[in-house]
Give the backbone structure.
Amino acid sequence: MSSILITGANRGLGLEFARQYAADGWDVIATARNPKSGEPLQQLARNKNVSLHDLDVTREDSVKQLAETLGGKPVDLLVLNSAIYTRNGNKLGELNFAGWRESFETNVLGAIRVAEALIENVAASNRKQIVAISTGMGSLQALGSTIEFGIAYQYRTSKAALNMTMSILAKEVEPRGISVVIFSPGWVQTDMGGANAVLTPEQSIAGMRKVLEGNPMELTGKFLGHDGATWPW
Ligand SMILES: NC(=O)c1ccc[n+]([C@@H]2O[C@H](COP(=O)([O-])OP(=O)(O)OC[C@H]3O[C@@H](n4cnc5c(N)ncnc54)[C@H](OP(=O)(O)O)[C@@H]3O)[C@@H](O)[C@H]2O)c1
């Protein structure tokens, strides 16, 4: 049975990743800061192929604890999904440097911290693939066309840094046959995306799953939309 580990699996896109792969019979390792707090995740965990684990990606002890719990268990697909979008203090005159640091701590360092801790679990699997959930808002070249979504210094710069971090990771682990794919999931109806977003979580995740059916090493290092279209950096 293939296995998937998802960060931030208690709501939004992370929960939908867990739902869809669980329905397909994958072994789902659903992680969250408070896995016992959300009813939808509790309900999902009634399936035998879903297990819940505590994970705060900003805390080294939490990441270490998860790695120890997993031991040598193979992870075919590692989904680095957790992120925050700090909305206050994104304009000159009111910049929120604490929020900016927190964005980097979660969205960049959190993602690579988990990847570093679990890289041997990924390497021990058949599929050997890491998926980082980024955003088109992290694209420098698309800034003109995405500026309508907000100035968002904190979120945008953290996701641009995530893109570079994951691009470097892709190069570092390529010789080991490990694939790293970066996705812009589209504008999706979640707590982060809001009710006016154009995609449902079902649509976004179904799209990314279809793309992931491709040969992992042909996808490595790419920045793709949920529809498989190439995003400019
Ligand atoms: N929705 C969109 O339109 C959209 C567009 C582009 C990109 N994205 C990206 O898609 C991904 C998922 O977003 P979403 O829309 O599902 O957002 P969401 O509904 O706000 O969910 C964010 C998830 O990240 C988790 N998280 C935050 N900080 C964490 C930490 N320190 N440790 C572990 N988990 C943490 C949250 O857990 P808690 O419940 O504990 O806070 C939650 O599970 C993010 O990377 C986001 O940037 C979303």
About this structure: The beta strands are 3-6, 27-32, 50-54, 77-80, 129-133, 179-184, 223-225. The first strand starts at residue 3 and ends at 6.
